[in-house]
Amino acid sequence: MKKLEKSFSYGKPRFRYRGYKPLILISRCLNFQNCRYDGSRIFCAPAEILKKWLAYRTVCPESDIGLPSPRPPLNLIKTSRQGWLVSHPDAQNFFQQQLRTKSRRYLRENASVQGLILKEKSPSCGIAGCKYYHPGNSSPRGRTAGLLTREARKLLPRAALISAENLKNPEILFYFLVKVYTWRRWENLRRSYSPAALQVFQARHKLLFLGFNRQLVDEMGRIIAAQKDYNQNQLIACYEKLLDNLLQQKLTRGCWINVLLHGFGHLSGSLNKEEKKEFRRLIQKFKKGETSYWSLHNWLESQSRERDITYLLNQKFLFPYPPGINNELATIDLLPDPFETAINHQK
Description:
Blueprint: E1 4-6, E2 15-17, E3 23-27, H1 45-50, E4 55-59, H2 61-64, E5 75-78, E6 84-87, H3 96-109, E7 115-118, E8 130-133, E9 142-144, H4 147-155, E10 160-163, H5 170-191, H6 195-212, H7 214-225, H8 232-247, H9 253-265, H10 273-287, H11 293-307, H12 310-313, H13 323-329, H14 342-346
């Protein structure tokens, strides 16, 4: 992991990360430390593989406010007047304020994070699956987010959130990786901003972005074309807002086929009849859901590299994150794919 530079002014980012890997907050009980309520840790194979590709900083609000491990489990309690409370099952001690303060401190000190990998069902780190109770009732009333997740959504609304369980979901994992790597590249651009650098960023992401939303890509293009009408801060804010909206979209097979055909157009002039036929065959299989997202990308990348088609090789749509991630995840039979659900993956 790249070195984290410290500065000690309270209320500002304490760790000013300068690396090129996405910066991620991860629950400490995932592979790092025995800090769960029962004194254990959880081994998460995808998180272990991604350790090489992401810059991790670990968090555990419960242990960092001084609670021991093992300890009685905490319950999340929903009240009408006091909001969310956190206590032991005997409701003698309450910890919501300490947990909320610690969570805010994590987020303020690491304000440049691109994402969070969290342990689901935890009253502090749970993303959506944490049980909650009503006062005086020992039966769960539903499921909700933990306190750290709630604070993250308020303070760092653009950070990508994923649970350890969903790291095994090909579709959710794909979007997580695309978001954190795209935001990391954007943060590095902001650090050394120039109009030319923004143009390069847009050009290299154009085909990837077109798969998400063509209208937003057109708006981005208009902003870049009219750079002289904005000061730098206005330009960055406008572009960033569009980028945020774009990365909240989902890909569709129809839109992605258009992107693939666009990419193919830069290559087709150097292909023979049989190679063009093979591409059309792959497109038809992809359209029917009979082949993976990556089969076409690998084919286009291989053909582009063989012919040194620089435009395509520089495009982030082929590999929006380092291809080595896929190679290593394949060792545990996992491949991020925006069109493969967890159910399909298990079949």
